[in-house]
């Protein structure tokens, strides 16, 4: 072969290899090819089937909402990151718009639509010529609301000419190495448009399904609960102490209370609203009601003094270290005390307890601590008068047992998701309304307050049957706005009331996109009046809300914007509760999502058992004026631990961690109660106890290691040979001993073993039983028989001798005795007697 032929052959091989690479048949070792067809988007929509090369994140939208006085354009900023294994070239971004949301569920479903449904397209704008693997590039797009806007050429328009909530999509294209140009990712978000600058195009406005709400309907009466709650932090199994430091599982709460922490930022956003110079509508503060977890207040109060933290949260008995949040806790609590008196305040159930499992536990005192005591705790700590009679379960849904428990404890209203109740004809609240359901698959709403007239369940086990409960009214909140509000912040949950068909992993969207979705959701009702639906809205973020200060402020700013544009009015929470319920009967619909995330039922029985033990011990303790600690202060922390076992906190995260924490709390509380019952006992005497006589008292010493006085009774299993008097109820001092003399009769001189124990006045065992060995100097039965026989023999012998003497006979027992010697002795006695007489 010639040199020229060899070169031609080599060039042919190279050409073949390049063709193979271009067609995408080379394996992963040389790079995975990508087809030119567009993938279908990120987690908000359908997942792309091919590899991921770019990640598009929305960073901000300015302004977050459009009003009639806004500029006729908005600015979208974002970041493109190369998350693939190769460079990407010719990267460009464009904006796309879908049709305005026309139903509440569309606030979620519109964010899952394929990009083809976003049919109003802007122009592609270049972002970067090339991004290597791991590189990122920020960009900013200026977008006109509609054509004809007086803006420089080349700016894209989304053709918005009427108010509404619009789904927007950012589409990023690029060309990865070994592939063609394709759509590589997208980011979706909602844009609320309260009014169109310049009035828009009347022709287009008439074509919109929903005209401007401010012209066609009254403002929406709006109420919002502002939750301040945290997961349980106090270590279980530690009864009250007058001077002992609190012990926390970790020190995460210190960071949350400190500047920049979650709870600090939620409170800061509220403070910015309450300031006189905030620039917000002053009536807006009336629409906000602080919803506070009393368990959080107890923990923060404990942190205001020196406290300890476990070195390992999984080892409650392990080493500890000093907590670092004392200063932050003091400052945060003082700020809360400063703002709370000027606002509506309502107490959440203690530690986000699950009311359904609390009802199954069947302990009235425990339920009273979990449901009724929170209002008093909040009032005492914050020096306010909180709203009473409103139950706010964490899941937004309860079964009939939970609803009955609320009614039995004096609650007249329950704040529930609007799909957590159904009408008498079986329809859910998504379509339940006095007016017919709207056509074309639209969704009507439900009155804010409905009557749960059919909720009647027998009282909990062990409870005294109360009078028939009054009707419990369901105050319903908007699940679509609540779902969007829950997605704000870090580690966002999907609430249990969110319908399954619109669930997706919201963490694939950026925080800015999720915030925009929330702003659109809380605006939708104001812009879209529904036939038969009241013009009102209750906004309910999750109880452990993860919004930061900027996000929370943006939510408040959106409410302020609605009020200023006459689309909403501030309605106090108390006014909402005072509304008359709709006369149409409604029934509870315990949501499947709530049931899946509920506390497992197997915790109910052991919690009931330990709660009963606390009640039994409490009934025996004595409140002494000189005592530093009252019985209630001593044992209430253990009741709180049992309530925390039934907490719904962190159960939305899935996994076994919540069950593990609950079981650990239950085990620690049980262990502590075992020790408390064992701290009151009889001290065992050493050796054998000898009674001086058959009626000598039995001396016993009882010890009480508890820091409170206690009433006890002696339980003595006396054997048949003894008769021990019951001395009745006695009192032992706190941290002290006491001696007792127990009247005892013993009719046996043998060693007797007498079992002795202490009980409460109700007969509940205390401490460990001891066995006392007793010996008495009293005559026993055998000794009495021997003595009687000896006396009888003596009488017989004396009688025999007298018998023989009376007859003048010698006694046979005297045989062998020398009589002469006896006569001599008698003679000497007579002589001595005579000599004595003469001597006188």
Write the layout of secondary structure elements.
Elements: H1 3-23, E1 54-62, E2 73-82, E3 88-97, H2 106-109, E4 120-121, E5 125-131, E6 136-144, E7 156-157, E8 164-176, E9 182-193, H3 202-207, H4 213-216, E10 220-228, E11 246-248, H5 252-257, H6 262-274, E12 288-292, H7 294-303, E13 307-310, E14 320-322, H8 326-339, E15 344-347, H9 355-361, H10 364-371, H11 373-382, E16 390-391, H12 400-408, E17 413-417, E18 421-423, E19 449-452, E20 472-477, H13 479-486, H14 511-527, E21 536-539, H15 549-564, E22 568-570, H16 573-578, E23 582-588, H17 592-596, H18 604-620, E24 621-622, H19 631-645, H20 657-677, E25 680-682, E26 689-691, E27 698-704, E28 709-716, E29 722-724, E30 730-732, E31 736-742, E32 744-746, E33 752-759, E34 765-776, H21 781-806, H22 819-839
Parallel strand pairs: 6-7, 10-12, 10-21, 10-22, 11-13, 12-15, 16-17, 17-20, 19-23, 26-34
Antiparallel strand pairs: 1-2, 2-6, 3-4, 3-5, 3-8, 8-9, 13-14, 18-23, 19-20, 24-28, 25-27, 27-31, 28-30, 28-33, 29-32, 33-34
Helix pairs in contact: 6-8, 6-15, 7-8, 7-11, 9-12, 9-18, 10-19, 13-14, 14-15, 18-19, 18-20, 19-20
